[in-house]
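Annotators were shown the component list below and the corresponding predicted structure, then asked to write short factual statements about the assembly.
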Amino acid sequence: MIHNSMISCVGSTPMVRLNRCFPDPNLDVVAKLEMLNPGGSMKDRPARFIVEQGLHDGTLQPGMRLVESTSGNLGIALAMATSLHGLSFTAVVDPKTSSANLRLLELFGADVEMVTEPDEAGGYLHTRVRRARELVEATPDAVLVNQYANDLNWRAYFETAGQEILDVVDGPIDYLVAAVSTSGSIQGIARRLRQEHPGMKVVAVDAVGSVIFGAKAGPRQLPGFGASRVPEILDVNEIDEVVHVGDAESAAGCRRLLATEKIFAGGSSGAVVAGIEHLTSRLDHAARVVTVLPDRGERYLDLVYDDAWVAGLRDPWQEPEAVVSS
Ligand SMILES: Cc1ncc(COP(=O)(O)O)c(C=O)c1O
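Structure shown to annotators:
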């Protein structure tokens, strides 16, 4: 088919079997290549869904402005989706936003608002959220996206990615393994897959240093993965296991994915590879694992693909082993 715009190219991403990365004949690991979305990440899905649902139900109209605290994939996706649908978008970012992402936000047409004051916790999260709310109050026809609390976030994946996986994966699905930040993707996909596979186990891969599942806050360097707050949309009762993966292990996972499968993916995809390794090394039965690779590697050339960056991380032998909790 011929698409009318890049926004209609979002979704319908391919799935690939990772049997070079996971050669165990008892394992069938199938990955959804979300990095092949036009904006470069799976966040194109909630961005498209939020804009198109809003236009459909009348809560959004052309000319209105969306505002969100985001310095990464969702920002780039919202810049694309709003602009193609005749809306505008303000991304509230902070000094830790990478220069590549700042440039991408601008190039895709976002208005960028930089906060500079650290918050009470020493980071920028709360300052950014406050600034986004102030902007919405001060701007006529502006709407806050609020991805951590917005049900349209998980519903985007329920309606699209979850269904697409069911369309191509025949037979049982034993595990869904996915990286988390807002939890929108894992929850939306899990809810749809569980309608057909009620016994499926859901394994969340979180960053060491992220507080989503009640672990201690700590430094972490990979963008897009983990969070410094608990998402309102998260229902922990729907998650069977959590695996915490550190930056060094994520980098090793990325490099393994590239070396074995020639998949050039972002940091959270490497974390997912590490998470699947931890999970499946404990299994004593055959299993099919469905996973999601959220974004591409280019935005991580200075991170997981930079030898000096990896060498500067704590000695991986001293880094705490991935912590697995049920
Ligand atoms: C690269 C990457 N991986 C994983 C995630 C986590 O996805 P979710 O917010 O749906 O939990 C994100 C979200 O921004 C991301 O950008």
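Statements collected:
1. The chain has two domains: 6-37+157-311, 44-144.
2. Residues 42 and 131 are 26 Å apart (CA to CA).
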